[in-house]
Amino acid sequence: MSQDLFLNHPITTKSFAIIDQEIGQHDFDALEYKVVRRVIHSTADFELINSLSFSPNAIKKGINALKKKTPIVTDVTMVKQGVLSLVNKTFKNLVIASVNQTSGSNPGKTLTETGLLKCCNTYPRGIYVIGNAPTALLTLCQQILLNKIQPSLIIGAPVGFVSVLEAKQALKRVNVPKIIVQGRKGGSPVAASILNALITLAYKNELP
Amino acid sequence: MSQDLFLNHPITTKSFAIIDQEIGQHDFDALEYKVVRRVIHSTADFELINSLSFSPNAIKKGINALKKKTPIVTDVTMVKQGVLSLVNKTFKNLVIASVNQTSGSNPGKTLTETGLLKCCNTYPRGIYVIGNAPTALLTLCQQILLNKIQPSLIIGAPVGFVSVLEAKQALKRVNVPKIIVQGRKGGSPVAASILNALITLAYKNELP
Q1: In tens digits, what is the pLDDT along chain B, a chain of 208 residues?
Q2: Per its UniProt record, what InterPro entries does this chain match (chains A, B) (predicted)?
C-alpha cells in the first residue's frame, strides 16, 4: 500500500485497469474482487488470486465493524503503518500493534504473541489484522476456542515457512468472520491492502 | 521481516534450512545467496530468485557503508519500520523515511518524490532503500545523472504496475552500487529484508 495512494489516485486507477485486463477468469463476487485486486496491486503477484478466501459475509461484517469505529489490532508495526494513513483519513479507528504492547519477555512466547494476548483482553471484539506472525494467529484462534474473544473480523495473512500453514488451518476451523491468504504467502503489505480495500469500500458507501 | 526475528532466532534458522532444501539450482555467490534467502524468507516467493540482481561488489560496499554509520533513507515508513529494529540493535544508523520529510504539496510530484529530493540534498552519500514508490527511484536516478548525489548503495525494489519497470531500467543505467528486484514485484518487506540481510552480514563480520 503506497502512502502516496489516496482513494481514486490516478496511478491507482491506471494500475487497477491493468490488473482488470490481465487477471483472466476467477470466481470472486464483485466485492471480493475489489479486495483481491488491491492485494495484487500491492504485490504484483497474480498467484495470490488462488490463495485468497472469504468466509460468508466477511467483507460486509468487516465494513460494518470499520464504520462502528471498532479498534484495529495488528501483529506488527509494519502492518499498522500500512493501514494508518487511510484509517486516519476515514473512520479514525484506534490502531494498535500487538508487538508494542509488551516490553517484558515471556518464556517460550514471542513478543507479538504476548502483546496479542494483552490486546485480546482489551479488545475482545476488535478487527485483527495478522500479516507476519503465525504465533499471533494461533494465539487468536486459541482465545476464540476458549470463548474469551469474538473478533469482528480476522485477516489472516502471516508469511513464511514455520507454523504458517498450521496457523491458517487453525483459523479455518474457528467460527469467526475471516479473510485468509492460504499457503505460505502473505505479509504486511498483503494484510494491510486487504484492510485498506475494506476501508475504501466502507467509505465509498458501496454497500446498502 | 518479522519483528520477532533477531539474529539467529531458531525460527529463522529453521526457515532458512527449508529454503536451502527447496531452492534448487542458482548462480548466486555465497554472499548474494544470503540476501536472496532472506528475501524469500520474507515473502515465501521463490520466483524472486529470478528477479534479484547485484552490481559488482554491491554487497561489500553496502556493508562498508553500514559499518560507517551512513544514514539510511527509505521511501516510505513501512520500509523504515521493517529495518529500524535491526538497525537499532546493530550499527544505529540514522533512518529517515522520505515521505515524512515534507508536508507541503508540490504540483505534479508525489509526497515521496518531494521528500526524497530533500533527503538527496542532506544525505548525498546515503544508503537509499526504495520498496514502494517508483517516482522516488526515478528521482534518485535523475539526481545521480545530474552529479548531485553519489549514494553508497541503492536498493531498488518498488512494486506495481505503473512506472515501476521504467524506474528499474533507469537504475540499471546509472553508475552506482545497486541491488535490484527486477520486474513488477518488490515491496516494503522485500526492500527491508535486503537491507536486513546486509546488516546481518556486516554485524557477523562475515567479510574480511
Answers
A1: 333 334 567 888 999 999 999 998 999 999 999 999 999 999 999 999 999 999 999 999 999 999 999 999 999 999 999 999 999 999 999 999 999 998 776 777 888 889 999 999 999 999 999 999 999 999 999 999 999 999 999 999 999 999 999 999 999 999 999 999 999 999 999 999 999 999 999 998 755 4
A2: Cbl_synth_CobH/CbiC, CobH/CbiC_sf
User: How many Cβ atoms sit within 10 Å of the Cβ of residue B161?
Assistant: 20
Q: Are A164 and A5 in contact (CB under 8 A)?
A: no
Q: What are the beta bridge partners of residue A128?
A: A73, A154
DSSP secondary structure letter of residue A162: S
List, for residues A30-40, the tens digit of each pLDDT value.
999 999 999 99
Find the CB nearest A81 among B43, B81, B163. B81
In this complex, do B183 and A44 lie within 8 Å of one another by their Cβ atoms?
A: yes
Compute how many other C-beta atoms are within 10 angstroms of the C-beta atom of residue A147: 8
Walk me through the domains of chain B, giving residue ranges and CATH numbers.
10-203 (3.40.50.10230)
Can you tell me the distance from the alpha carbon of B21 to that of B10, in angstroms, rounded to the nearest whole number? 17
| CB within 8 Å: B162 and A42 | no
Interface test with chain B among A87, A165, A166, A188, by most B beta carbons within 10 Å: A188
Predicted ipTM > 0.90: yes
> For B81, which of A77, A160, A184 is closest by C-beta distance?
A77
Q: What does each C-alpha distance from B33 to B41, B117, B130 come to in angstroms?
A: 12, 33, 21
